[in-house]
Structure formats: structure tokens, C-alpha cells
């Protein structure tokens, strides 16, 4: 899975932070706005329906007042008491009808079966009003008006009409007859047409049987809602959220007229509600897009404040990983406190590492120089040791020859007299040879003293080198302490990231974005810890190499001590040889003097020769010891040469390691 950049994460977080509240507010506002819009539409529709209902109620009230006026007319009440009352009543009915355009007919049906009808017509003479429903029901009600079901006008207008009738009672509360008036309902359709609900909504007036008696579309008048496939529920008082009529959805609000039991049904197209909601939805989308653009812009702006320091840290660590410690991190205008701490820590590590590498470079150069000097000194010491062995061997050979010569003298004692002179000459030669040996011993002693002085200088240099290597080890330990400090800082950063994750988890959905940032901070801390571990590993390798060099130096110092002891032994041996040579010279002189005496006294000469033979044996033994010591010294010098070569190799390795770093 490809890792996401901090810029992408911050932008995503800001988008969520911007959009989630908008979505929450949008959803809530959508709910409340939808509820409010529906409530407003319902209120508006209901007001229109109630207004329509009020108009109908007012008309009914006017009609009831009109019929009450006619019923209370004195001519009607005294119809059978005064002969002129029928005529006067007719004129009253005519006047009433003329003043009310919506009333087509006004009439009185008497208990005797007669009818006074306005407008005047002969057709009523053949009809007994007492058989008509309007008469029967009104007569039964005795004072309460009745309204018939709507019906079509039979006079040819096809208009819908209703009849309102009421019983006329005389002073004795006896039935005189029933007054009725036929009212056209055309104005109800006009009112329905002029009653606006929204933009395309309308009002329909339906009687209790489901017949439409008021509609903006005249073609639907007097049609039953069953025939139009309208749901019967629309006649019930109340609100129906959605009703599909003629393929279109409507919100329906119904009110009942108490006097007529008619249903006033208001139809509001659902598309109008949805259209208003769509306007609001578009506004939310526009706000969301603007918020998204703002979040992206802010995310791009603020992510740079995090990304730029991280890139600087990444570049610096990459350079240090490759051994380049020449570049420090420029904090610039970094405003993030934790980033400044990390940058300062890395800069401190770089500076301390540069100091250590400088010291290490200087120490490695000193080690190289000292190892070269030690190598040269040991090589010279080896050559001097070989020369000492050769000189001692010559002395041994000379003493061996001398012993053989003494033995020949003993064997030739009978010819002593003749050869005393030769012996004296030989004694002179021996004195010369002893002088030569003495000079050689003197030179060898000086060489041994010079070797001892060189060894002391070399030992001092090695001790100083060991001290510098110890200083280098202490500097490396300081780096380890610094890396531990960085580890501690990264652990504290990880702990802060963990605390941020916990707090974001407590914050719930609103804190998820901060959990992502905390996670990225934790990863950055892990990367810093990894880099510190890498530095610690490099320092560990340096410490290991320094320890190996230090161990070899201590071995070299111990070897130098052994070599110094051997040199002291050799010096003592040369002193012993020198003393022996002195004794030898003295013996030779004595021999020379003895030869003179031997010349006169052979027995004394024989004794002296025996003494000289013993001295020769001692010299031979001494030279053998010196030879053995010289050989041991030569072997020790070879070991010193080998150690010096190893030290030289270690110094080369240390130099190559130091050169890998750029400081």
C-alpha cells in the first residue's frame, strides 16, 4: 500500500473537518427546513382551504338569513288569514329573487298543496309540493332549515344547484307551508378557481356523497371522485402527505363544513415542495464546494509548515547516513515547537559527531605516525640484535680456539721450551684479540643502551597513544549518551502522539482527523529513533575498533616491558662480558708474565696454562649464555615487529573509517 503524504492527510482531515459539520448542519437543517417548508405549505394550504370554507360558511349564513327573512314575512305566516297575502308574498319573493342573482327560484309550498313560485310559471300548478323531498324534510324539521344534495338544473343551464328550505309556522305554531329557494353553485367554482395554493395548487369542493360541486375545471363538476379514481380518504378531515391524482403527486388538506357536510379539499403539488427543497439543496452543495475549496487551500498552506521542516530533517539525516556531516539543519521560520526540538537535537548530534570525528582523525594520524616509528625502531632493534648474536658467536669461536690452543700447549709441554717464544707471540695476539673483543663489546653495549633509550621513547609514545585512544573512547561514549537523549526525545514524542490518539479517541468522530496526525507524528518519532539507532550502531562499531586497537596497544606495552627486561638482561650480560674481557686481558698479561717465568720454570707455566684453560671454559660458558639471551632478544624483537605491523594495519583501517565521513 502506497504511503500517503502529510499534505494529503492534512487536506483530507480539513476536508472532513469542514464537510462533516456542514453535512451535520445540512442534514439537520434539511430535516428542519423540510419540516418547516412542509409546515409552511401545510399552513398556507390550510389557510386557503379555511378561507374557502369561510366563504362557503358566509354564503350559507347569508342564505340562512335570507330564508329566515322570508319565513318570518307576515304575508307568509298569515297566508290563510288574509286574502291579499298570497299576492303580497309573491311580490316579496319576486323582489328577493331579483336582488339575489345566484338564486334562480323562490317559492312557498302550502299545506294545502298550492305553490307560490317566483318567477311565475304555470308548470307548478300540476305539482303537489307536499310530495317533494325539500318540503317533506323541512316540514319534519319544523323550523330548522335543510339543504338538499346538489343537483343539475333541469331548465337547460346544467348548472349545479342546491335547495334550501324551511317550514313556515303561524302564530299558533301550526304549519303554513315550506319556503324554498334554488341556489346556483357556479360561484363556488369561481371561488375555487381564484383560491390559490402555492403556484399550481387548487381547491375542490366535494359533497358528502363524493360529487364534485366546486372545481376550477368545469368538466369535473358533478363527477364523483370514484369515477375519477381519487382515493376516498381525501374526504376525511385532516392531512394526507402524498396522493397520486392523474399521475401527479399532491399533498392534500381537507376541512369539513359543519352546516352542509361538504368537504373542502386543498391540493398542493408535491413538486412545489420538492422544488423549494432543491433550492436549499443547491445552496448546501455550493457552500460545501466552497468549504472544500477553502479546506484544500488551507490544507496546502498549513501542510507546508509541517512538510518543509520534515524534508529538511529527512535530507540532513540522509546526508549523515551517507557519512556527510557538513550540512546543518536551517530552522528558518519553523513555528512548530516539536519540530524545532528535533532540529536542534539533530544539529547537536551533528556538531558533537563532527568534534568526535575531528578528534578521531587526529588520534588516528597520531596512531599511524607512532606505529610507523615503532615499526622502524623494532626493525632497527632486530638488526642490532642479529649483529649482537653474530659478535657473541665470534667471541665464542675465539674462546673455543683459545681452549684448543691451551690443550695443544698441554700436549706439547715436552716442546715447551722450544715453543715458549711462540706462546709469547700468541699471548700478544690474544691481547690484540681481546682488545678487539672489548671494543666490540663496548659498541654492542652502546647499541644496547641506544636500543633501551628507543624502547623507552617508544613505550612513552605508546602510552600517550593509549591515552588518546581512551579519550576517543570517552568521546564515543558521549555520542552514545547524545543518541540516548534523542531516543528519549523520540519516546516522549511517541508518548505525546499516543496521548493525542487517546484524546482523539475520546473525542469520537470529530477527533479522527487528529488521530491521523498523531499517528504521523508517531511515525516521524520512530524514523528519528531509527536514525539515532543507526548512529548508535556506527558509534558502536567505532568503539569496537577503538577497543581492539586499545587491546593491541596494551599487548604492545606489555611486550615492550618484556623487551625492556630482555634489553636490561642483555646490557647486564655485556657488562659481564666486558668484565670477563678485562679478566681475560689480565689473565693474558699474567700468561705473558708467566711465559716469561715458564721460560725459566716449566712447571709454573704448566700450572698457569691450566688456569688459563679454566678461564677459557668460563668465557665459553658466558658466551653461550650471551648467545642464548641475544637469540631470545631477536625472537622478542620479531614479535615486536609483528605487533608494530598489526598496529600499523589497525591505524590504516581507522584512517579509512574516518575518511568515510565528511566534516
From TrEMBL:
One of its GO terms (cellular component) is plasma membrane. Coiled coil: none annotated. InterPro entries: Chemotax_Me-accpt_rcpt (IPR004090), dCache_1 (IPR033479), MCPsignal_dom (IPR004089), Sensor-like_sf (IPR029151). It comes from the Bacteria. Pfam families: dCache_1 (PF02743), MCPsignal (PF00015). The chain crosses the membrane at residues 12-31, 280-302. It is a multi-pass membrane protein. Its main location: membrane. One of its GO terms (molecular function) is transmembrane signaling receptor activity. It is found in: Cell membrane. CDD domains: PDC1_HK_sensor (cd18773), PDC2_MCP_like (cd12912). Keywords: Cell membrane, Chemotaxis, Membrane, Transducer, Transmembrane, Transmembrane helix. GO terms for biological process: chemotaxis; signal transduction. Residues 377-634 form the Methyl-accepting transducer domain. Belongs to the methyl-accepting chemotaxis (MCP) protein family. PANTHER family: LYSOZYME-LIKE PROTEIN-RELATED, METHYL-ACCEPTING CHEMOTAXIS PROTEIN MCPB. This is Methyl-accepting chemotaxis protein. It comes from Clostridium botulinum.
Amino acid at each position: 500500500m502506497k504511503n500517503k503524504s502529510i499534505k494529503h492527510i492534512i487536506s483530507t482531515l480539513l476536508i472532513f473537518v469542514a464537510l462533516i459539520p456542514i453535512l451535520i448542519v445540512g442534514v439537520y437543517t434539511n430535516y428542519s427546513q423540510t419540516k418547516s417548508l412542509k409546515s409552511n405549505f401545510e399552513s398556507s394550504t390550510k389557510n386557503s382551504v379555511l378561507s374557502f370554507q369561510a366563504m362557503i360558511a358566509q354564503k350559507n349564513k347569508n342564505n340562512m338569513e335570507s330564508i329566515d327573512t322570508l319565513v318570518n314575512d307576515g304575508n307568509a305566516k298569515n297566508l290563510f288569514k288574509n286574502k291579499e297575502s298570497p299576492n303580497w308574498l309573491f311580490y316579496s319573493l319576486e323582489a328577493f329573487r331579483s336582488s339575489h342573482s345566484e338564486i334562480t327560484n323562490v317559492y312557498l309550498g302550502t299545506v294545502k298543496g298550492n305553490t307560490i313560485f317566483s318567477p311565475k310559471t304555470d308548470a307548478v300548478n300540476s305539482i303537489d309540493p307536499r310530495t317533494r323531498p325539500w318540503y317533506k324534510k323541512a316540514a319534519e324539521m319544523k323550523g330548522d332549515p335543510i339543504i338538499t344534495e346538489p343537483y343539475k338544473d333541469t331548465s337547460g343551464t346544467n348548472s349545479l344547484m342546491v335547495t334550501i328550505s324551511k317550514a313556515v309556522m303561524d302564530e299558533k305554531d301550526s304549519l303554513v307551508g315550506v319556503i324554498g329557494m334554488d341556489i346556483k353553485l357556479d360561484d363556488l367554482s369561481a371561488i375555487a378557481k381564484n383560491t390559490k395554493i402555492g403556484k399550481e395548487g387548487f381547491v375542490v369542493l366535494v359533497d358528502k356523497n363524493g360529487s364534485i360541486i366546486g372545481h376550477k375545471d368545469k368538466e369535473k363538476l358533478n363527477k364523483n371522485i370514484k369515477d375519477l379514481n381519487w382515493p376516498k380518504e381525501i374526504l376525511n378531515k385532516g392531512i394526507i402527505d402524498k396522493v397520486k391524482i392523474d399521475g401527479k403527486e399532491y399533498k392534500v388538506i381537507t376541512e369539513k363544513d359543519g352546516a352542509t357536510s361538504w368537504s373542502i379539499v386543498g391540493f398542493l403539488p408535491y413538486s412545489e415542495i420538492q422544488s423549494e427543497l432543491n433550492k436549499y439543496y443547491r445552496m448546501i452543495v455550493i457552500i460545501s464546494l466552497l468549504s472544500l475549496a477553502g479546506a484544500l487551500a488551507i490544507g496546502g498552506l498549513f501542510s507546508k509548515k509541517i512538510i518543509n521542516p520534515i524534508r529538511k530533517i529527512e535530507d540532513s539525516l540522509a546526508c549523515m547516513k551517507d557519512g556527510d556531516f557538513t550540512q546543518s539543519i536551517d530552522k528558518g521560520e519553523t513555528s512548530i515547537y516539536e519540530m524545532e526540538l528535533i532540529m536542534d537535537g539533530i544539529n547537536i548530534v551533528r556538531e558533537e559527531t563532527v568534534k568526535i570525528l575531528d578528534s578521531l582523525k587526529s588520534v588516528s594520524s597520531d596512531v599511524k605516525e607512532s606505529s610507523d616509528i615503532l615499526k622502524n625502531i623494532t626493525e632497527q632493534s632486530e638488526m642490532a640484535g642479529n649483529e649482537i648474536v653474530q659478535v657473541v658467536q665470534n667471541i665464542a669461536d675465539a674462546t673455543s680456539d683459545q681452549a684448543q690452543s691451551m690443550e695443544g700447549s698441554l700436549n706439547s709441554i715436552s716442546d715447551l721450551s722450544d715453543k715458549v717464544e711462540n706462546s709469547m707471540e700468541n699471548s700478544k695476539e690474544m691481547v690484540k684479540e681481546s682488545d678487539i673483543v672489548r671494543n666490540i663489546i663496548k659498541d654492542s653495549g652502546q647499541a644496547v643502551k641506544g636500543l633501551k633509550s628507543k624502547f623507552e621513547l617508544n613505550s612513552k609514545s605508546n602510552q600517550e597513544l593509549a591515552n588518546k585512544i581512551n579519550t576517543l573512547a570517552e568521546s564515543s561514549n558521549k555520542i552514545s549518551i547524545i543518541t540516548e537523549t534523542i531516543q528519549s526525545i523520540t519516546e516522549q514524542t511517541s508518548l505525546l502522539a499516543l496521548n493525542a490518539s487517546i484524546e482523539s479517541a475520546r473525542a469520537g468522530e470529530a477527533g479522527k482527523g487528529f488521530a491521523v496526525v498523531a499517528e504521523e507524528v508517531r511515525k516521524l518519532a520512530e524514523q528519528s529513533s531509527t536514525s539515532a539507532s543507526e548512529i548508535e550502531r556506527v558509534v558502536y562499531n567505532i568503539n569496537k575498533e577503538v577497543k581492539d586497537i586499545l587491546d593491541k596497544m596494551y599487548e604492545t606495552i606489555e611486550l615492550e616491558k618484556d623487551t625492556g627486561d630482555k634489553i636490561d638482561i642483555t646490557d647486564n650480560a655485556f657488562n659481564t662480558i666486558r668484565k670477563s674481557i678485562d679478566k681475560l686481558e689480565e689473565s693474558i698479561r699474567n700468561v705473558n708474565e708467566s711465559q716469561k717465568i715458564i721460560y725459566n720454570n716449566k712447571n709454573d707455566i704448566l700450572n698457569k696454562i691450566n688456569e688459563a684453560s679454566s678461564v677459557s671454559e668460563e668465557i665459553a660458558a658466558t658466551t653461550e649464555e650471551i648467545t642464548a639471551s641475544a637469540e631470545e632478544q631477536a625472537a622478542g624483537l620479531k614479535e615486536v615487529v609483528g605487533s608494530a605491523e598489526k598496529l600499523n594495519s589497525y591505524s590504516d583501517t581507522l584512517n579509512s573509517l574516518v575518511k568515510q565521513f565528511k566534516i
